[in-house]
Design goal:
The protein has 284 residues and is an alpha/beta fold. It is built from 11 helices and 12 strands. The chain has 2 domains: 135 residues, Rossmann fold (3-Layer(aba) Sandwich); 138 residues, NAD(P)-binding Rossmann-like Domain (Rossmann fold, 3-Layer(aba) Sandwich), CATH 3.40.50.
Length: 284
């Protein structure tokens, strides 16, 4: 890719005005001498929902977008209107990055490797016999694949829609072996026996304040990981830190999924450390 090539990318999701992703991509594009523009396509601001995805994708193609990131609540809804899926996206059943190239819409998942990289860096030596995951949506599917790939022996998945949790557990067991994942039914008891807790729900975002787990179920021996990154310190992490838990905020996943998305959009490998440093320098 030559320096005069324009990358026009965007993020489709609901309630994303606080997202650091545009600044993250554009700053790295500037550092590499690319003309790199990144736009927010906020369903809430546009008073739209996931039903608008076909129109939004068509508009992006007409305006020569290079690609799109996809976030809550569209990571699974986007799949039927794509032409191809990467092996990762097909296995996970969720897409967070769409490359628009030669008239084709190609779906990728960079969330899985993004979470795995953050987990390896932030919680490298934690016990992973039993882990509880809150949420079985698009991000949850990617994180669950990452957790089992990183050595979690048994993953209990809790979701407001139990059928969705069961469906994800079935998918994981096909990939990783019977009994590695299950839909949870008793949060208090399961957490009492767990080594770690991961929140993959949007609960804790600025637009959805609160915590997915009552504070009285937390204890100091539990490690707690979060994928929400605006704000970086969610209520769940604040509760956990106050008890002395080891914690991982959503920043690393946000950065490392963006590193891969940047490469897919531009064809240029970005400087991951520079992107991480820039992310950390942005005010929360």
């Amino acid at each position: 890719m030559t320096c005069n090539t324009v990358v026009l990318a965007g993020l489709i999701g609901a309630g994303i005005q606080a997202s650091r992703t545009p600044a993250l991509h554009e700053h790295e594009g500037d550092a590499l001498g690319l003309r790199y523009l990144y736009r927010l396509i906020d369903l809430d601001s546009l008073q739209l929902d996931a039903m608008a995805l076909p129109d939004l994708l068509m508009a992006a193609e007409r305006m020569n977008f290079t690609g799109l990131n996809i976030t809550f609540p569209c990571k699974q809804a986007i799949i039927p209107i794509l032409d191809e899926l990467s092996p990762e996206a097909r296995g996970i059943g969720a897409v967070n990055t769409v490359v628009l190239k030669n008239g084709k819409r190609i779906g990728h998942n960079t969330d899985c490797l993004g979470f795995a990289e953050g987990f390896r860096r932030g919680l490298p030596d934690v016990a992973r016999q039993r882990v509880v995951q809150m949420g079985a949506g698009g991000a949850g599917a990617a994180v669950a694949h990452a957790l089992l790939s990183e050595g979690v022996q048994q993953l209990s998945i809790f979701d407001v829609d139990n059928a969705r949790a069961q469906s994800l557990a079935n998918n994981l067991n096909q990939h990783f072996g019977a009994g590695r994942a299950m839909a949870g039914c008793d949060l208090a008891n399961t957490l009492a026996q767990a080594d770690g807790l991961v929140n993959t729900t949007p609960m804790g975002m600025k637009k959805l304040p609160g915590t997915p787990v009552p504070v009285e179920l937390l204890r100091a021996e539990l490690w707690v990981a979060e994928i929400v990154y605006f704000p970086l310190e969610t209520e769940l992490l604040r509760d956990a830190r106050a008890l002395g838990c080891r914690t991982l905020d959503g920043g690393n996943m946000a950065v490392f999924q963006a590193v891969k998305a940047f490469e897919l959009f531009s064809g240029v490998v970005p400087d991951a450390q520079r992107m991480l440093t820039h992310f950390q320098s942005m005010s929360d």
